[in-house]
Amino acid sequence: MSLHLYNSLTRRVEAFKPADPARTTMYVCGPTVYNYVHIGNARGPVVFGVLADLLRRRFGALAYARNITDIDDKINASASEQGVPISVITERFTAAYREDMAALGVAAPDLEPAATAHIGEIVAMIQRLVEAGHAYAAEGHVLFAVDSFDRYGKLSGRDPDEMLAGARIEVAPYKRGAGDFVLWKPSSDDLPGWDSPWGRGRPGWHIECSAMAAAHLGETIDIHAGGVDLQFPHHENEVAQSECAHGGRTFARFWLHNGMLNFDGAKMSKSVGNIARVHDLVRAHPPEALRYALLSAHYRGPLDWSDGLIEQSVRTLDRLYGTLRDLADVDADARIPDAIEAALDDDLNTPQALAELAGIAGEARKAGDAAERARLKSELLGAGLALGLLQQDPATWFARGASGEDDARIQALVDERVAAKQARDFARADAIRDQLAAEGIVLEDTPQGVRWVRKVA
Description:
The protein has about 450 residues and is an alpha/beta fold. The protein has 16 helices and 15 strands. The chain has three domains: about 5-260, 3-Layer(aba) Sandwich (Rossmann fold); about 300-395, Four Helix Bundle (Hemerythrin (Met), subunit A), CATH 1.20.120; about 400-455, no CATH class. The chain has helices at about 40-60, 75-80, 85-105, 120-130, 160-165, 205-215, 230-245, 280-285, 285-295, 305-325, 340-345, 350-365, 370-385, 395-400, 405-420, 425-440, and strands spanning about 5, 10-15, 25-30, 60-65, 135-140, 140-145, 180-185, 200-205, 220-225, 250-260, 260-265, 265, 305, 440-445, 450-455. It has a four-stranded parallel β-sheet with strand order 4-3-9-10. It has a four-stranded antiparallel β-sheet with strand order 5-6-7-8. Strands 12-11-13 form a three-stranded mixed β-sheet. A hairpin with a 2-residue loop joins strand 11 (about 260-265) and strand 12 (about 265). Helix 11 packs antiparallel against helix 12. It is elongated. The mean pLDDT is about 95.
């Protein structure tokens, strides 16, 4: 098998191999920790987490970094409003982010660098840019001179003048060029700041990722990933400052960008106000269903988010876990099927992988031979493993949101209904069925007997 990925830099699908066979490197842009993240912010961590596991299976050692931006004007504003140090804000929402990602089945990255822990590296990179003539100091600021990098715009593939015309660019008298962007800015006494050759101040957003990626992964990395909304200006600026600071060496060999989530036809964003926070969603719905929903569309395209999508994902997982429950008497170890690996090797084609998983489950439900049932259960578990799904005990999945005592009560009613039907007491059987239906319990007739599931709210 050969892994192929769409490279935003070249705008084509290319075969991927790490530059160093002994160490694959990947950097994914992480959150700015001033509030809870919305579900759109979780798409990248979920999808690129699947990629991280795939890279480890293909190439062995992986250094996967996902940063924390813990110095930002929004963080400063929140801290000022509450009258607390920025660390109170950042520590709270960093912890919440980790908790919410874990609920979605997103494993922690190998490295989680924070911007405030890399001020020295940031200052050093800015100094190199100034010395090389790619940046200049002005009124306490240091700015990158866009016209000093003749390949500016190569990542987004658009003319710099067109990009600047469509972007919200800060107009300031100290700028030499309209598109020049801030690497360092001054801090007043009431704002967080660090000493630097240009006075007390704090870093601009773009320089943070460049410095942290270089510090932990090297001057050239294999894969840089993030949301397509970051392609310009954030990632474009990362390319410019990194390659200028490192003597023209390529910053990232592959660029991967996930598409946005739409809600009622509009892009989900905090500025619009049409957001669904992960922190709330994982408490209102089975987190695994949210993960399934995020994987249901190809990562490069948009994903239409809705309650209907969540409900459909829950029902699908009900069927899949129901299949595993029916195979409870079969001993099997997870084995990732070739068809799943082939789908993921094809630019992370998770919709195809989910279709293959459903096909395996369908075969398993029809299989009668013991060896065939064992093979299919092994493949079903393996397919789930590759996607971060089906790793719970089926009983745990079906008991979501309920106590063990409630499960026992429901099972007792199901058993009583079966007995009533066998005794031809159809009035009692119908009464129990109606009672369970009113409680949101759906009964399913299977070759193994009557099963029950909780209906999606």
